[in-house]
């Protein structure tokens, strides 16, 4: 009898042990989803809302969870957000840096904890981030310069109203523009920079340089938001400049293009950018390598670079590039010119 009891107890112990092992095995298969934190500069500019929505949708479709932080133009808020993500033990942090040389200490802290850090659209200088995903900013500037070369004559003067000096893309865009301006024999009358990309800075510049603007035949604007402010200021000062260009293909800029007050915008298909960034981020979070041949210097280190090419958009090709791609619908673009709607 005692022998039978001993065998019964032993059998029950083995069953319990087996159950525990099965439970442990089941738990090991229930891997937690990839955790991604994304820190934007601001959502005031239309395009960043598109980036956010596409990135989140793509990452979620790949099984990741995404937390979004909006810094509202504050470097300190971006620093706080990185520290918050470190405490949350995120797998990856994606950053649109407000200042290209800020956040270095926080990025090192994150990487020390094994968190992958991705520079999105703007490169963190000296940060040695694990990846940079952006459009070719030098090509953006070149396309702007070509727009002037196609419409103006050698010797014509242009004014550059650039974005924030703390944005690394601005320097690359300026390089591309200057190369094109030299190629076409254009004279750069002056260069100004809008702190924090504030459109009001562009308006103030025009108001304070009316006589200079009378000599200009073109204005290169760092983005469409600045272009809108420049055009408004020109109208208020009863000035007319034939060629004004910007970038981002914002809806109001596309409307101005069909109305012929803005000549060109540089279209950067942000859906493609955000999708590629989300896919690459999930891969990095899972420990996979990114097969990317391009690299870019962040001033100290070579960083893997997923580089996309932008497109120039004028009235001639706006239907094929913007409407056919679904970026904006024709009813919105031709809102003020319904008779011209295709």
From TrEMBL:
What InterPro entries has UniProt attached to this entry? Bact_Solute-Bind_Prot2, Peripla_BP_I, SBP_2_dom
Domain of life per record? Bacteria
Major location category of this protein:
other
> What organism does this protein naturally occur in?
Suipraeoptans intestinalis
Signal sequence residues: 1-22
Name of this chain's protein: Sugar ABC transporter substrate-binding protein
Print the keywords alphabetically: Signal
Tell me which GO cellular component terms the UniProt record holds.
outer membrane-bounded periplasmic space
Q: Name one Pfam family in it.
A: Peripla_BP_4
**According to its UniProt record, where is this protein located?**
Cell envelope
Q: What are this entry's molecular-function GO terms?
A: carbohydrate binding
Residues forming the Periplasmic binding protein domain are 36-289
């Amino acid at each position: 009898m005692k022998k039978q009891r001993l065998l019964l107890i032993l059998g029950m112990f083995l069953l319990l042990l087996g159950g525990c092992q099965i439970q442990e095995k089941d738990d090991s298969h229930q891997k937690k989803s990839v955790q991604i934190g994304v820190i934007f500069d601001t959502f005031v500019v239309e395009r960043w809302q598109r980036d956010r929505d596409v990135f989140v949708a793509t990452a979620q479709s790949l099984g990741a969870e995404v937390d979004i932080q909006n810094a509202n133009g504050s470097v300190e808020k971006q620093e706080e957000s990185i520290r918050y993500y470190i405490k949350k033990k995120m797998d990856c942090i994606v950053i649109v840096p407000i200042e290209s040389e800020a956040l270095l200490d926080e990025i090192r802290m994150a990487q020390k904890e094994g968190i992958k850090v991705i520079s999105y659209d703007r490169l963190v200088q000296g940060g040695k981030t694990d990846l940079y995903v952006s459009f070719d900013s030098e090509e953006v500037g070149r396309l702007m310069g070509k727009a002037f070369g196609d419409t103006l004559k050698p010797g014509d003067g242009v004014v550059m109203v650039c974005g924030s000096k703390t944005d690394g893309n601005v320097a690359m865009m300026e390089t591309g523009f200057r190369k094109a301006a030299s190629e076409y024999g254009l004279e750069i009358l002056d260069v100004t920079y809008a702190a924090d990309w504030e459109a009001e800075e562009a308006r103030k510049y025009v108001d304070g340089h009316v006589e200079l603007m009378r000599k200009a035949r073109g204005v290169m604007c760092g983005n469409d938001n600045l272009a809108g402010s420049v055009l408004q200021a020109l109208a208020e000062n009863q000035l007319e400049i034939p060629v004004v260009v910007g970038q981002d293909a914002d809806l109001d800029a596309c409307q101005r293009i069909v109305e012929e007050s803005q000549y060109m915008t540089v279209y950067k298909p942000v859906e493609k950018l955000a999708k590629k960034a989300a896919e690459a981020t999930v891969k990095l979070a899972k420990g996979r390598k990114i097969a990317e041949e391009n690299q870019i210097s962040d001033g100290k280190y070579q960083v893997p670079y997923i580089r996309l090419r932008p497109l120039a958009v004028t009235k001639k090709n706006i239907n094929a590039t913007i409407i056919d791609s679904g970026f904006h619908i024709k009813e919105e673009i031709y809102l003020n010119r319904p008779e011209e709607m295709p």
